[in-house]
């Protein structure tokens, strides 16, 4: 068991992939390298799928249009038509987290298993949430929103500036980490056959659900700030 614990801790360690030999050496962790790979894959797929677009879609264009339609309808149901300007960012984050959670299937380390990555995503979300409120209400209206529904709640509403990103960060990191630990335990106890169906749930279904939940909560908080 001690050997397993040591091996598990080793797997959770975000190792350095290589060092860029400038400014005394800039270390590049695995999570950053895998994120670069995901970005390259998404860019290549985008270039391939948007070539030779037809008025009547067929082949891969059908899949792309269905995905874009699903993302737009999903966010329009939460933010309304006036929130369309935020759809590209939210959709990109959803696709990135989906790829990041699934990439473990191909033997790469999931970037969302790194607390720094989920913290960065959460900070970007809270900046978007607050900036959308300022954009819709103006600075004065945004400041007044902290006194809603009554002035006594100002300290609690102000604390949400810190609680919400922490909640988003730990929710995503905790779920990805929990799924990883469960799968490692299963592989240790019953290495044959049994882990396969659980892998479909924890590595695929749960990974996609976590991407959905992260952007859903971000959009929900944005709607609250914009009203």
Helix/strand layout:
Elements: H1 2-12, E1 16-20, E2 26-29, H2 30-49, H3 60-79, H4 87-102, H5 115-144, H6 154-189, H7 195-226
Antiparallel strand pairs: 1-2
List its salient traits.
227 residues; mainly alpha; two-stranded antiparallel sheet; globular
Described by the principal axes of the CA atoms, the overall outline is globular
Give the spatial strand order of the biggest sheet. Answer: 1-2
* Structural class by helix and strand composition: mainly alpha
Measure the end-to-end span. Answer: 53 Å
**Percentage of residues in helical conformation:** over 70%
The helix count comes to 7
Give start-end ranges of low-pLDDT stretches: none
The profile of the biggest β sheet is: 2 strands, antiparallel
Total number of beta strands: 2
Q: Roughly what fraction of the amino acids lie in strands?
A: under 5%
Tell me the radius of gyration: 20 Å
Topology as a string of helices (H) and strands (E): HEEHHHHHH
Arithmetic mean pLDDT: 85
How does this model look, in words?
This protein has 227 residues and is mainly α. Helices cover 73% and strands 4% of the residues. It has a two-stranded antiparallel ribbon with strand order 1-2. α4 (87-102) packs antiparallel against α7 (195-226), α5 packs parallel to α7 (195-226) and α6 runs antiparallel to α7 (195-226). The longest helix is centred in the last third of the chain and has 36 residues, at 154-189. The protein is globular, with a radius of gyration of 20 Å. The mean pLDDT is 85.
């Amino acid at each position: 068991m001690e050997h397993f614990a040591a091996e598990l801790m080793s797997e959770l360690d975000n190792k350095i992939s290589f060092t860029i030999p400038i400014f005394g050496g800039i270390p590049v962790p695995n999570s950053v390298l895998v994120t670069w790979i995901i970005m390259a894959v998404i860019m290549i797929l985008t270039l391939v799928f948007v070539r030779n677009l037809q008025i009547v879609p067929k082949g891969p264009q059908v899949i792309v249009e269905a995905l874009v339609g699903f993302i737009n309808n999903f966010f329009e149901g939460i933010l309304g038509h006036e929130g369309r300007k935020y759809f590209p960012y939210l959709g990109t984050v959803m696709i990135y987290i989906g790829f990041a959670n699934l990439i473990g299937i191909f033997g790469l380390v999931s970037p969302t298993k790194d607390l720094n990555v989920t913290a960065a995503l959460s900070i970007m979300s809270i900046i978007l949430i607050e900036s959308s409120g300022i954009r819709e209400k103006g600075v004065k209206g945004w400041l007044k929103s902290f006194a809603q529904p009554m002035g006594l709640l100002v300290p609690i509403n102000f604390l949400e500036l810190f609680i919400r990103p922490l909640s988003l960060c730990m929710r995503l990191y905790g779920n990805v980490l929990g799924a990883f630990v469960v799968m490692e335990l299963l592989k240790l106890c019953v290495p044959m056959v049994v882990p396969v169906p659980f892998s479909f749930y924890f590595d695929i279904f749960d990974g996609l659900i976590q991407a959905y939940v992260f952007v859903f909560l971000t959009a929900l908080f944005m709607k609250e700030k914009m009203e």
